[in-house]
# Entry
Amino acid sequence: MLAKVLSGALVGLDGVLVEVEVDIASQGLPSFTIVGLPDKAVEESRERVRAALKNSGFDFPARRITVNLAPADLPKEGPTYDLPIALGILIASEQLKADIKDSLFTGELSLDGKLRHTNGILPQVMLAKEKKIKNVFVPHVNSSEAALIKGVKNFPLESLVDLFYHLQGEKLIKAKNPTKLKNNFDSFDFDMQEIQGQEQAKRAMEIAAAGGHNIILKGPPGAGKTMIARTLPSILPSMTLDEALEVTKIYSISGLLDGSIATKRPFRAPHHTTSHIGLIGGSTIPKPGEITLAHRGVLFLDEFPEFQRHVLEALRQPMEDGFVTISRASGRITFPSKFMLVAAQNPCPCGFLGDKTHSCRCTTVQILRYQKRVSGPMLDRIDIHLEVPAVKVEKLTTTDRKLTEDSKMIRKRVQRARDIQIGRFKKSKITSNSEMGSKDIKKFCELSDDCLNLLRMAVSKMNLSARGYHRTIKVARTIADLEDARDIKITHLAEALQFRPKNDVIF
# Structure
């Protein structure tokens, strides 16, 4: 007898409908074969399904069993097909009679028939909604993730036996209600109030958070660059529903969601020994890299010049386009990569170039070689360049925390500025000033004659490139939004110019 069960495969970040066909032949030697380009994990589902059926009290037919995963030319990977294969065997062997044409099944089986946590549930539920499939059956630990999508009945399963009784109508499973997205800003590891001094750095981080701008922090060891960067998540604006769905889908596929909903913006801090594939993404079947895991959030690269040169150069195109396309023999996959780049570095190998309290021991050749590790085009893509000096002892020893603002106060201003930007760009696909193109700059960033004259002087004296020119205007627009100003004033533009490289010598 033949049985057909609907499931889903993952291609990049999207789900693709897969029809699991199970045929049990009445003739031939007993066998269990899976076809349709399965990987090793799918092939091993034969043993998991066999044990799960027996340990759940069902009969495993000693016949010739053929499982086809259609379409046959699409590579299948992972244990997500365990549940539909087991269900197909139950129906094809006539142990179960059920109408499942409007249902999608996915999940990994343990040997005792229980359902384990499975990656990529959210894209499959979104696929079911797109294909107008009414019901989805998922592991219980993934149910809160699946419940984020409205318009589809989500049935959480503890075991294969629960599914059997539900389909027979003996013990119905209650569908889980859709989950509302709630932002929780109460649990951050770092707070802006903990940073002593560094008022200019805090101001720069506020501007970067409000407009989604890239920023680089340069300063001697112990100045607080890393701590300043790690406080950034505490002042970032809340995600919109569409952004939360994007992030949740990425983390669901990568196996990092752990059954919960992504409500905070990502903060990724890979080590400087990270490989090209680890940062950009790749492998035989392309997987998301760190830049995709940082989508709609922050990518923090500490010890910036210590990263391999070709790894940093690979960031240039994703930073401009907001996506990265990976081509392999198995196909081309496009991953989103709209992230804030936060970089931190020392000014020289010893770290004390320009420091007033320590003398630099590096030679000119060593300094030039160190600075050349980061290319000019890469630095030109960073909106805010900030010098972070060593903290004065008077600031370190102060005990009055009321003198400094906490993250909650700063976040309110950042959220207000981001709301202005969302309203400004409501008719386009962008959500922040950093994403503006040249057409958007002409439309939303009108400059007075005084501002244009200042920019002309800056281009000639600071050697600003065309990219640097436009990025300066974007930062000025964000500063104006923080002050709730309709037009960009000369003071906004002057402050934005302060965040360009002081010497503007790009090696």
Observations:
- The chain has a mean pLDDT of 90.
- The first helix runs from residue 40 to 43.
- The longest strand covers residues 14-25.
